[in-house]
């Protein structure tokens, strides 16, 4: 630690800290544009000037290291004049278009010009103009506003791992641009909007929509993958106008994947807002009572074992528990939260969660990825892997992958093979990467859904656990065995036991004619042709997707933005989201629909309020009693999951995501995500048009 005096206040800061960090530790506000806590230091805006005693001139505090006994002055006449001069230079060419700029009201340049700038300008020359750049369908550019802070360049290179932005020319002619005019290819490109301190990079779908002070903010969770990114929904009236990330260093730091940020326009399209019943082959709008009566009549006389339910990927824990309780009351054990057919061992939680935690990636010193493409399955988590890779330096964090990645993973990884057969070589030590894992103090393994949706999934899971034990990835002080899920509802579903009970049927068994009545709770990610022609289908959800078209009765539910819900992310962290807007039309929260229906059929569920249901949730599994945290512990029992490690198939792994932008009904209803899909996934179609 180093002792530094800031404006007469003595503080202690770690060795290697900058003067800016020392000033903030003393409670002093230092203006900045180019400096960002999660990016490398550029030192090119010069707005953070401070005075260091015995220094010949003001210094840029962001890149000036502290020393023992250093005295820093942050509010002297010299510092004030220097900052005013810097601000005057920054505003030489900046256009006076604040009234039409989407950054207005939350612009760092506005705020700091008011706080640290002068009230006049001495420059009379004409301002320069810069051609706008095309960065794709998500990020809008007005490059005349750019102050060349290079935050976007450093983010694209360091965090996203897609170095597609840079600076050309020098001095007054300097421009930030992409090297070839094409859309940015990162799944994290929307974060450029957040880190840009001016209005040069803004949201293209949100352009000219609203001002910040018009919006109501509600805490929520990104449900489009299993990372559990903390978000904030910005609402005006009854519409969600934008979604931005909230800071949570344990989960997402301050980043948000593009799908979670820009798919919100899907909440306005193809919505289910009234109950429907199929009459003589055609769906007809009806009242809630008529819809419930139609289902009740069909259930009359049907044995419990001929009733089943499948849960979708966007469901909250409350609705899943209510559905399970309803099925239990009807005498059915045919409940499944795995519409993709994935197989798990749920006897212990460490067999199906991300054991090290997302933040634990930064503690690992070797990584093996099995059957997963983290860049598409969990872009924010992939950024954490890249962060560890970059921090470790060249060769300091070896990464091996089993399975061919469908895109550049954004870090250097050795492809060990395309199928699970290589696991036997790693366990026997005949493969060189086995020595890398054994030499590591904290090796880590990520098992993806590409390995868990196969017929030999249990064998692969057992083989991966055996390898983890062999190389020391699991033990009393460290749990490096990680399962990376792709569905926001999956871990909560497994925690609540939404799996076929004794004699129960799986999702595939139910769809192939194993039940007479099939209840789909937001389950859309399968081909509806798999459902038997004679099966009576009840679809409860918020979008008119393929499963709704197949349904005999449609019950309109609420999306994640229209209800308060509990979600459990891939690492087993229980988190809460809150209602930002009301559901459209006659749509209702899913658990309320199930509770109302249970009363109609004489199987009344024992809770009338959300609080009572959450008490039932905590009673069903104690993990739901702790919100926001997770147990961080090693593994004392090294006994592996059920399965024969030798029974793996040589067949190569297949990616579980074909189109990152079209993975759920909200995304498929989103015009923005549709445009992204056409540009990034189907570029030949765009070229033909």
TrEMBL record:
PANTHER family: NADH-UBIQUINONE OXIDOREDUCTASE 75 KDA SUBUNIT, MITOCHONDRIAL, RESPIRATORY NITRATE REDUCTASE. Keywords: 2Fe-2S, 4Fe-4S, Iron, Iron-sulfur, Metal-binding, NAD, Oxidoreductase, Quinone, Translocase. Its cofactor is [4Fe-4S] cluster; [2Fe-2S] cluster. One of its GO terms (molecular function) is NADH dehydrogenase (ubiquinone) activity. Its EC number is 7.1.1.-. Coiled coil: none annotated. It comes from the Bacteria. Belongs to the complex I 75 kDa subunit family. Gene3D superfamilies: 3.10.20.740, 3.30.200.210, 3.30.70.20, 3.40.50.740. GO terms for cellular component: membrane. The keyword Calcium does not apply. It comes from Gluconacetobacter johannae. Pfam families: Fer2_4, Fer4_NDSU1, Fer4_Nqo3, Molybdopterin, NADH-G_4Fe-4S_3, NADH_dhqG_C. Residues 215-271 form the 4Fe-4S Mo/W bis-MGD-type domain. GO terms for biological process: ATP synthesis coupled electron transport. InterPro entries: 2Fe-2S_ferredoxin-like_sf (IPR036010), 2Fe-2S_ferredoxin-type (IPR001041), Mopterin_OxRdtase (IPR006656), Mopterin_OxRdtase_4Fe-4S_dom (IPR006963), NADH_UbQ_OxRdtase_75kDa_su_CS (IPR000283), NADH_UbQ_OxRdtase_ferredoxin (IPR054351), NADH_UbQ_OxRdtase_Gsu (IPR010228), NADH_UbQ_OxRdtase_Gsu_4Fe4S-bd (IPR019574). NDH-1 shuttles electrons from NADH, via FMN and iron-sulfur (Fe-S) centers, to quinones in the respiratory chain. Couples the redox reaction to proton translocation (for every two electrons transferred, four hydrogen ions are translocated across the cytoplasmic membrane), and thus conserves the redox energy in a proton gradient. Residues 1-78 form the 2Fe-2S ferredoxin-type domain. SUPFAM superfamilies: 2Fe-2S ferredoxin-like, 4Fe-4S ferredoxins, Formate dehydrogenase/DMSO reductase, domains 1-3. Binds 1 [2Fe-2S] cluster per subunit. This is NADH-quinone oxidoreductase. The keyword Cell membrane does not apply.
């Amino acid at each position: 630690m180093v002792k530094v005096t800031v404006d007469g206040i003595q503080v202690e800061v770690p060795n290697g800290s900058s003067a800016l960090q020392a000033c903030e530790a003393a409670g002093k506000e230092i203006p900045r544009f180019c400096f960002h806590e999660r990016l490398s230091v550029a030192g090119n805006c010069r707005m953070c000037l401070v005075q260091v005693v015995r220094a010949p001139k003001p210094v840029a505090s962001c890149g000036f290291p502290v020393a023992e006994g250093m005295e820093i002055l942050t509010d002297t006449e010299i510092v004030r004049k220097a900052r005013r001069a810097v601000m005057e230079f920054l505003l030489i060419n900046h256009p006076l278009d604040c009234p039409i700029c989407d950054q207005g009201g939350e612009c760092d340049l506005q705020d700091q010009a008011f706080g640290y700038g002068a009230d006049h300008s001495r420059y009379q020359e004409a301002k320069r103009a810069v051609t706008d750049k095309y960065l794709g369908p998500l990020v809008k550019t007005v490059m005349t506003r750019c102050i060349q802070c290079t935050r976007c360049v450093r983010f694209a290179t360091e965090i996203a791992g897609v170095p597609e932005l840079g600076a050309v020319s020098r001095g007054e002619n300097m421009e930030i641009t992409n090297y070839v005019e094409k859309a940015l290819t990162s799944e994290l490109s929307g974060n450029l909007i957040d880190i840009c301190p001016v209005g040069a990079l803004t949201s293209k779908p949100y352009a000219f929509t609203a001002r910040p002070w018009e919006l109501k903010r509600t805490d929520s969770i990104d449900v489009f993958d299993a990372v559990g990114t903390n978000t904030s929904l910005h609402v005006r009236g009854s519409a969600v106008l934008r979604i931005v990330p909230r800071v949570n260093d344990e989960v997402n730091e301050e980043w948000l994947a593009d799908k979670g940020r820009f798919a919100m326009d899907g909440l306005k399209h193809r919505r289910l807002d009234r109950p429907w019943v199929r009459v003589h082959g055609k769906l007809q709008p009806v009242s809630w009572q008529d819809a419930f009566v139609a289902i009740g009549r069909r259930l009359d006389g049907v044995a419990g074992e001929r009733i089943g339910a499948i849960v979708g990927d966007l469901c909250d824990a409350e609705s899943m528990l209510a559905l399970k309780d309803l099925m239990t009351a009807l005498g059915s054990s045919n409940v499944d939260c795995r519409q993709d057919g994935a197989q798990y061992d749920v006897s212990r939680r460490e067999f199906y969660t991300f054991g090290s935690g997302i933040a634990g990636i930064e503690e690992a010193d070797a990584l093996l990825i099995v059957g997963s493409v983290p860049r598409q399955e969990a872009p924010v988590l992939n950024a954490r892997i890249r962060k560890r890779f970059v921090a470790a330096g060249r060769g300091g964090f070896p990464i091996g992958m089993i399975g061919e990645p469908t895109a550049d993973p954004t870090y250097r990884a050795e492809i060990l093979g395309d199928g699970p057969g290589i696991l036997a070589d790693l366990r026997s030590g005949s493969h060189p990467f086995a020595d890398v894992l054994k030499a590591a103090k904290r090796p880590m393994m990520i098992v993806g859904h590409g390995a868990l949706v196969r017929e030999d999934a249990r064998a692969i899971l057992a083989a991966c656990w055996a390898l983890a034990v062999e190389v020391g990835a699991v033990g009393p002080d460290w749990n490096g065995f990680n399962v990376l899920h792709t569905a926001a509802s999956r871990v909560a579903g497994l925690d609540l036991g939404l799996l076929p009970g004794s004699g129960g049927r799986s999702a595939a068994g139910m769809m192939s004619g194993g039940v007479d009545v099939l209840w789909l709770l937001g389950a859309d990610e399968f081909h509806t042709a798999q459902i038997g022609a004679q099966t009576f289908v009840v679809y409860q959800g918020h979008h008119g997707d393929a499963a709704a078209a197949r349904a005999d009765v449609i019950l309109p539910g609420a999306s994640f933005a229209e209800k308060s819900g509990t979600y459990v992310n891939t690492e087993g962290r229980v988190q809460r989201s809150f209602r930002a807007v009301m559901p459209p039309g006659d749509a209702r929260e899913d658990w309320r629909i199930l509770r109302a229906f249970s009363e109609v059929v004489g199987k009344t569920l024992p809770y009338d309020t959300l609080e009572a249901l959450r008490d039932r949730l905590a009673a069903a599994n104690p993990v739901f009693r702790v919100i926001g945290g997770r147990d961080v512990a090693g593994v004392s029992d090294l006994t592996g999951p059920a399965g024969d490690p030798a029974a793996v198939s040589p067949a190569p792994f297949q990616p579980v995501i074909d189109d990152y932008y079209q993975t759920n009904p909200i995304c498929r209803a989103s015009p923005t995500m549709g445009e992204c899909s056409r540009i990034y996934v189907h570029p030949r179609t765009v070229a033909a048009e």
